[in-house]
């Protein structure tokens, strides 16, 4: 296993009842990293599974993978639950300066991990796996209703960021950028969107890597009506976070303009009265 001193890259995987996917995920990640053309060394990479007390054998699977030489560890949370807070916890525990988040269900192809990690640098502090890149058929294996939900959620986020796919859960951030974020919404639906806004990532610092969604191998989708409501609540909070000062300025401007108009029309002596 890689030592603490040589760990420069961390892959964070939030998980709940994903034991069936953990072994293929880890083996595929490290197989990609060990390719001769990989831009990132496997020896400098760790994988952290953040598990929400699944009790489904995930911890035992990770222990077996460790015995086989894979640099993977698991954090089992017993008092918290939720995807976004799991990602935040993983970033806090990460040893690497370049941190990547991906789903456990294999819909984020592990073969893209090396290029995603390599895309981060001091000048590109955020990397986004985008389904809207050239040559990518967006969510081609999804049913129509999922495509509509995904496209609608993206449109609602457009005023907040220039990123092409801020709804993506396949993203990375440099440690120094993550540490700049304040008031993160750990209960929100899309932590990438929250980090883009609250880490104040400028457009030129975002690197994008096109990818096609894979098909879930095991387990069930986490998308529910409750999750969508949480996303709308998150959007409302982010709109206020980003535009509140502008709204306050606009209100003050309108109030001042109103009083100037009142004074102009009713407060100044009329021409007739000045001639008398």
UniProtKB/TrEMBL annotation:
Gene Ontology MF annotations: dolichyl-phosphate beta-D-mannosyltransferase activity; metal ion binding
Enzyme Commission identifier(s): 2.4.1.83
Top-level taxon in the UniProt lineage: Eukaryota
Bilayer-crossing regions: 246-266
Localization of this protein: Endomembrane system; Endoplasmic reticulum
Pathway participation: Protein modification; protein glycosylation
Gene Ontology CC annotation, any one: endoplasmic reticulum membrane
InterPro entries: DPM1-like, Glyco_trans_2-like, Nucleotide-diphossugar_trans
GO terms of biological process kind: dolichol-linked oligosaccharide biosynthetic process; GPI anchor biosynthetic process; protein O-linked glycosylation via mannose
Stored Pfam families: Glycos_transf_2
Alphabetical UniProt keywords: Endoplasmic reticulum, Glycosyltransferase, Magnesium, Manganese, Membrane, Metal-binding, Transferase, Transmembrane, Transmembrane helix
Necessary cofactors: Mg(2+); Mn(2+); Ca(2+)
Catalytic activity: a di-trans,poly-cis-dolichyl phosphate + GDP-alpha-D-mannose = a di-trans,poly-cis-dolichyl beta-D-mannosyl phosphate + GDP
Domain Glycosyltransferase 2-like: 10-178
Self-association state and partner proteins as the record states: Component of the dolichol-phosphate mannose (DPM) synthase complex.
Family from the record: Belongs to the glycosyltransferase 2 family.
Primary role: Transfers mannose from GDP-mannose to dolichol monophosphate to form dolichol phosphate mannose (Dol-P-Man) which is the mannosyl donor in pathways leading to N-glycosylation, glycosyl phosphatidylinositol membrane anchoring, and O-mannosylation of proteins.
Listed name of the protein: Dolichol-phosphate mannosyltransferase subunit 1
């Amino acid at each position: 296993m890689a030592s603490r001193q040589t760990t420069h890259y961390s892959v964070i995987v939030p998980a709940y009842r994903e034991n069936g996917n953990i072994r293929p995920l880890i083996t595929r990640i490290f197989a990609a990293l060990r390719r001769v053309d990989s831009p990132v060394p496997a020896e400098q990479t760790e994988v952290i599974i953040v598990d929400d007390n699944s009790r489904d054998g995930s911890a035992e699977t990770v222990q077996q993978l460790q015995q086989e030489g894979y640099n993977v560890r698991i954090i089992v949370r017993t008092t918290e639950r939720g995807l976004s807070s799991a990602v935040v916890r993983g970033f806090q525990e990460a040893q690497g300066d370049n941190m990547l988040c991906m789903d456990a269900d294999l819909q984020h192809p592990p073969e893209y991990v090396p290029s995603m990690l390599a895309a981060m640098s001091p000048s590109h502090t955020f990397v986004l796996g985008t389904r809207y890149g050239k040559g990518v058929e967006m969510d081609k294996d999804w049913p129509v209703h999922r495509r509509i939900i995904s496209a609608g959620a993206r449109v609602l986020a457009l005023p907040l960021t220039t990123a092409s796919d801020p709804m993506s859960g396949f993203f990375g951030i440099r440690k120094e950028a993550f540490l700049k974020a304040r008031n993160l919404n750990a209960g929100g639906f899309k932590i990438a969107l929250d980090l883009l806004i609250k880490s104040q990532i400028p457009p030129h610092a975002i690197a994008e890597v096109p990818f096609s969604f894979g098909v879930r191998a095991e387990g069930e989708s986490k998308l529910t009506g409750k999750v969508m409501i949480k996303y709308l609540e998150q959007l409302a909070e982010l709109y206020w976070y980003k535009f509140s000062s502008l709204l306050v300025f606009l209100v003050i401007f309108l109030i001042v303009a109103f009083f100037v108009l009142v004074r102009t029309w009713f407060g100044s002596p009329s021409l007739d009265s000045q001639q008398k």
